[in-house]
C-alpha cells in the first residue's frame, strides 16, 4: 500500500468548513459532508440542464455575484469550486498560526469569495485512465493524486525514476512525492489560499511571500539597485531582480526579453502583419483588443471623456489626462533630464527627440525604444544599462564578430582600389551587464557596498530559467517565424 499522503493527513485534522450559501450557516469538518450539503442547495434550485437553459441563475454564495448563463453544469462547477476554495482558506488560516510574527494580509475582504471562471469540466489525461470528467475540483485533484501514489516504483533501486503518465509529458522524477508536485503543473491545483483576500497559491512559501510583500515600508529592508523597489527578504529581492535580466532572444532580430510572454508579444507586434481584431463598422483591423476599443470610440457621436471641472470633451484618454494636468494642475513638471547637457523636458518623447537630433543617439540593436529611469533627485534619465543573462551575453558577443565578418565579405565584393580605405570604425560591443547588485537599507539610508556598510551582490547565471522551457519557447517562435512566411517584416 502506498504511504498516506500529506493531503490525507490534512484531511484528518479538524477544519471548520462553513457554508456561505445565502443565509445558511452550517459548518462541517469533512469535505465529503460539506460537498454533499452544498449539493443539496443546488438541488433546491430545481433547475434542469437542457437546450432550454435560457434563464440566468446567480450563485448565492456570499460576496460572489457569479451568474450562470450557459448550463446547470457550469453553475455546479462554480459552486463546487467554492467548497474547494473554503478548504484552502481554512488551511491558510492554520498555516498562518505557525507564523505569528509574519503579519496578515491587508488587501481586504472584497475579493475573498471570488473564484476563477471554470469553462470546462475537470478531465484526467493520465495514460489509459477511463475516469469521466468531473465537476468537483476536490474529487478531481484527489483522483489525479491517486495516480501519483499508485505508480510502480522499484523499491530495490534507490535511483529509480518515476515517469509522469500525463498526456504528451515525458518528465521523470525521483519518487512519488516529486511526481505529485509535478502533476499540479498539469492540473493547476493550488494547495493553500489567503483567508483574507482569497488569493490561491501553489505552496506555502508563495503564500508567505504574499503576506511579506504587504509589510510596511519600514520593514522592507532590501532594495533593488536598478529600480529602487523594496522587499522584506533577500529571496524576494532575488526573485524580483530576475525580472530585470533578459534570458530570451528573438530568433528574428537582436531583441532580448526577460520572459517568454514578452518575447511572444515582441514577435507579434514587431514581426507579424497579422491583425486578428477587426472593426464591425469599417475596414479597420489591429493586433490587440485595446487598440480596437480605442478605435470603436471614433464611431461614437458622443465624446468618450468629459472633464469634471469644465466643459472640455474628447474621445482620447490621453487628451483628457493632458487637459486635466495643464488646465487644472498647472503646467507639466519638466522631469525628463538629458544626462549629456542637463536640458529638461516635460515628456519622455521630447527627450528622445532631443537625444536623437542633438546628440545623435540611436536605438541600440535589440532595444525597441529609449527607456528612462527615475534617479534619487526625482529626474528621469536615459537608462544606460541593459541586463542580459550570462548565456545570452556570450551569444551576443559571438554573433557580433560573425556579423562583422559578413559585412567584410560583402565589402570585398565591391572590389575597391588598393589605396581605398574600406575599414570603418569598429562596432562597439553590445552593452551588457551580468551582475545585479541589491542593497540593504538601514536607518542611515542605502548601503552600497562602500565604507558606509556592506552590500549584497548577486550574480544571476544562465541556469536561472528552465532549459526545457527556453528551448520550447525558442522552437515555438522559430516555427512561428517559418509559418508567417511573407508576413515577417
Highlighted features:
489 residues; alpha+beta; Double Stranded RNA Binding Domain; 5-stranded antiparallel beta sheet; two-stranded antiparallel ribbon; globular; disordered N terminus; disordered C terminus; zinc; C2H2-type domain-containing protein
What does this entry look like structurally?
The protein is an alpha+beta fold. Among the domains are: 6-212, no CATH class; 259-378, Double Stranded RNA Binding Domain, CATH 3.30.160. 35% of the residues lie in helices and 12% in strands. The chain has helices at residues 6-12, 31-44, 72-97, 137-150, 176-187, 204-212, 234-241, 260-270, 289-296, 317-328, 348-358, 390-412, 467-484; strands at residues 17-18, 27-28, 57-58, 67-68, 162-163, 172-173, 192-193, 200-201, 222-224, 230-231, 245-246, 248-249, 256-257, 277-278, 285-286, 305-306, 313-314, 336-337, 344-345, 372-374, 380-382, 387-388, 435-442, 445-446, 456-459. Strands 9, 10, 23, 24 and 25 form a 5-stranded antiparallel beta sheet that branches. α2 runs antiparallel to α3 (72-97). The termini are far apart. Mean pLDDT is 74; it is low at 1-9, 407-437, 439-474 and 480-489. It is found in: Nucleus. It comes from Esox lucius (Northern pike). Its main location: nucleus. Residues 404-422 have a biased composition (Acidic residues). Residues 398-430 are annotated as: Disordered.
Amino acid at each position: 500500500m502506498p504511504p498516506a499522503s500529506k493531503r490525507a493527513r490534512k484531511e484528518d485534522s479538524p477544519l471548520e468548513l462553513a457554508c456561505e450559501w445565502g443565509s445558511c450557516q452550517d459548518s462541517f469538518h469533512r469535505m465529503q459532508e460539506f460537498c454533499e450539503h452544498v449539493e443539496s442547495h443546488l438541488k433546491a434550485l430545481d433547475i434542469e440542464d437542457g437546450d432550454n437553459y435560457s434563464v440566468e441563475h446567480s450563485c448565492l454564495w456570499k460576496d460572489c455575484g457569479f451568474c450562470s448563463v450557459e448550463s446547470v453544469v457550469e453553475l455546479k462547477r462554480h459552486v463546487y469550486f467554492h467548497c474547494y476554495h473554503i478548504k484552502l482558506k481554512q488551511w491558510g488560516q492554520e498555516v498562518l498560526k505557525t507564523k505569528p510574527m509574519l503579519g496578515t494580509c491587508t488587501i481586504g475582504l472584497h475579493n475573498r469569495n471570488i473564484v476563477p471562471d471554470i469553462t470546462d469540466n475537470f478531465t484526467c489525461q493520465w495514460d489509459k485512465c477511463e475516469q469521466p470528467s468531473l465537476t468537483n475540483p476536490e474529487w478531481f485533484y484527489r483522483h489525479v493524486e491517486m495516480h501519483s501514489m499508485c505508480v510502480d516504483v522499484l523499491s530495490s533501486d534507490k535511483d529509480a525514476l518515476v515517469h509522469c503518465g500525463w498526456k504528451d509529458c515525458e518528465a521523470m522524477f525521483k519518487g512519488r512525492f516529486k511526481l505529485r508536485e509535478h502533476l499540479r503543473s498539469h492540473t493547476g491545483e493550488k494547495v493553500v489560499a489567503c483567508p483574507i483576500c482569497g488569493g490561491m497559491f501553489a505552496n506555502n512559501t508563495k503564500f508567505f511571500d504574499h503576506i511579506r510583500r504587504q509589510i510596511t515600508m519600514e520593514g522592507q529592508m532590501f532594495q533593488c539597485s536598478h529600480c529602487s523597489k523594496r522587499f522584506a527578504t533577500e529571496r524576494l529581492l532575488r526573485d524580483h531582480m530576475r525580472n530585470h535580466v533578459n534570458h530570451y532572444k528573438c530568433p528574428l532580430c537582436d531583441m532580448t526579453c526577460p520572459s517568454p510572454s514578452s518575447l511572444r508579444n515582441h514577435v507579434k507586434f514587431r514581426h507579424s502583419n497579422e491583425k486578428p481584431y477587426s472593426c464591425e463598422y469599417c475596414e479597420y483591423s489591429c493586433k490587440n483588443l485595446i487598440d480596437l476599443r480605442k478605435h470603436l470610440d471614433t464611431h461614437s457621436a458622443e465624446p468618450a471623456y468629459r472633464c469634471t471641472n469644465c466643459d472640455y470633451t474628447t474621445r482620447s484618454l490621453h487628451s483628457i489626462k493632458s487637459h486635466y494636468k495643464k488646465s487644472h494642475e498647472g503646467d507639466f513638471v519638466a522631469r525628463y533630464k538629458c544626462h549629456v547637457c542637463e536640458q529638461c523636458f516635460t515628456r519622455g518623447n521630447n527627450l528622445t527627440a532631443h537625444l536623437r537630433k542633438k546628440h545623435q543617439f540611436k536605438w541600440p540593436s535589440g532595444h525597441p525604444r529609449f527607456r528612462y529611469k527615475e534617479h534619487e533627485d526625482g529626474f528621469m534619465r536615459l537608462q544606460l544599462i541593459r541586463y542580459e543573462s550570462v548565456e545570452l551575453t556570450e551569444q551576443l558577443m559571438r554573433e557580433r564578430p560573425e556579423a562583422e565578418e559578413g559585412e567584410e565579405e560583402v565589402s570585398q565584393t565591391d572590389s575597391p582600389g588598393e589605396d581605398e580605405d574600406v575599414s570603418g570604425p569598429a562596432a562597439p560591443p553590445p552593452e551588457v551587464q551580468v551582475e545585479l547588485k541589491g542593497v540593504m537599507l538601514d536607518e542611515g539610508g542605502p548601503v552600497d557596498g562602500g565604507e558606509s556598510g556592506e552590500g549584497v551582490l548577486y550574480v544571476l547565471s544562465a541556469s536561472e530559467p528552465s532549459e526545457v522551457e527556453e528551448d520550447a519557447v525558442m522552437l515555438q517562435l522559430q516555427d512561428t517565424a517559418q509559418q508567417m512566411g511573407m508576413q515577417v517584416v
